């Protein structure tokens, strides 16, 4: 277990990261009570777009898709060509297809978000630690059936060595320096669309300065 590092090695980089998004499906959202559901949707789609901006491999999973519903369309739209791994296991790390998909990336910093925090996030997060991964859980792109369930799950994972993080912090660690213009434009566009009050304030500032808002369709660095 290497997650307890400090200093620069404790921070995420795009080159070392792989993102695993677990069970953001209609049925799961129906019993989400730790967060306002539209906030989790906003955050996970923003996280997915951020991963795409930094070319971070992203693995999508569902559970019992034929009953619980397909992956949310706004999330699927970020990766339109990718078919989610549809599991039966509560612990996605017990599905060899998921493990092999992560292993195939060759990356050891595993970033996870999903529903529910207390089950389908906590189980693989704790399990993957034992396989030598540094595990980061994006708490505001995840959620539980109650606030207590979510909070106890985060507490349990932290005790095991998982690092809790928010989706905007993930992007900030991947960017690290605004001089990295190849990713700044695409990440900025995701932030403008999903960044909440800060994004609205920035758009207003751009309006006052008569400067166009970044276009997510523009080439990186444009």
From TrEMBL:
Keywords: Hydrolase. The keyword Hydrolase applies. Gene3D superfamilies: Isochorismatase-like. One of its GO terms (molecular function) is hydrolase activity. InterPro entries: Hydrolase_YcaC-like, Isochorismatase-like_dom, Isochorismatase-like_sf. Residues 17-168 form the Isochorismatase-like domain. SUPFAM superfamilies: Isochorismatase-like hydrolases. This is Hydrolase. The lineage of its organism: Bacteria, Bacillati, Actinomycetota, Actinomycetes, Glycomycetales.
